[in-house]
Hints:
Blueprint: E1 4-6, E2 44-47, H1 50-60, E3 68-72, H2 77-85, E4 89-93, H3 103-112, E5 117-121, H4 130-139, E6 143-148, H5 152-161, E7 168-172, H6 173-176, E8 183-186, H7 200-210, H8 213-218, E9 234-236, H9 254-262, H10 265-282, E10 289-291, E11 304-309, H11 313-320, H12 337-345, E12 346-350, H13 357-371
Parallel strand pairs: 3-4, 3-5, 5-6, 6-7
Antiparallel strand pairs: 1-9, 2-8, 7-8, 10-11, 11-12
Helix pairs in contact: 1-2, 3-4
The site of pyridoxal-5'-phosphate (PLP) has 12 residues, from α1 and α2.
Amino acid sequence: xxxxxxxxxxxxxxxxxxxxxxxxxxxxxxxxxxxxxxxxxxxxxxxxxxxxxxxxxxxxxxxxxxxxxxxxxxxxxxxxxxxxxxxxxxxxxxxxxxxxxxxxxxxxxxxxxxxxxxxxxxxxxxxxxxxxxxxxxxxxxxxxxxxxxxxxxxxxxxxxxxxxxxxxxxxxxxxxxxxxxxxxxxxxxxxxxxxxxxxxxxxxxxxxxxxxxxxxxxxxxxxxxxxxxxxxxxxxxxxxxxxxxxxxxxxxxxxxxxxxxxxxxxxxxxxxxxxxxxxxxxxxxxxxxxxxxxxxxxxxxxxxxxxxxxxxxxxxxxxxxxxxxxxxxxxxxxxxxxxxxxxxxxxxxxxxxxxxxxxxxxxxxxxxxxxxx
Length: 373
Ligand SMILES: Cc1ncc(COP(=O)(O)O)c(C=O)c1O
């Protein structure tokens, strides 16, 4: 079965430049002189991005004969494309409304199909029922790739405690820290490839971006006025939009690795948790929609606050107000009704560690107003 991705519903160029950003900026107060990642072993490498780490894991874990992989139906194409490139047969499995997995459905798929591999995702930094899912997969001798793209802290903690049943774990550093690139791969039972270092010119460009200097210079560039809405149509997934096979050989920038090592991880963790708790409490009675999760478990660190809008038009309204909410619009066709619904209604509200109270209040006010019109 070939995988079909639709094109994005909206183009970022249709919206004004955001004032409340999805990602944090670099700030000295979140740095320390003490290496925070001392647990990292020879089984761990820093890749250019998460998709590169997925490709290396997918290649290392391939088995003889047909490789059939289960991937959650709610996903972004960057996580699926490496497996298509590696010639895996992809089967999408449905997600429940809280993005956990129905163990009965999973079990049936494992029995009916000749599944060899499975991707499990810690969506937005939350655990869902990942431990039960991994346990079931292990009982069926399935190779597990744990996607911690949104869960850098769980990735780090799992390495420290050897606390995951997965055969490989990946993370995406720039989702949580203010870098321009960066992925991580932990694969304890396989040897790792040597990655190419990036050129110094590109490293300097990366540093300028991380420091926010290139963005300031870009403000002087003429804005792109060609903002026609893209037409939704299916495209063949062999024409990759996000994954560039060559990137699999590239290491992360040196300064990204440095940032991962010398960021005050505990402080970042606490700020994100506090921001999430504040937003949750203030949006409790909001009439525009509801938060997908209202509590944080002990080890959960939110990447964003997933929020289910009552009206699909609210996404555009928030972007027009300058709030950089995100959503996964390019989900491959599947029979999962939750994914089809969430592609338009589930948005990712920022709750990163650099958000000020004023920004959070601006976000709360904008959403609350939508429900009161
Ligand atoms: C769940 C998930 N996995 C993997 C990826 C790929 O990560 P990266 O953007 O670092 O390549 C992303 C983001 O695009 C993601 O959201």
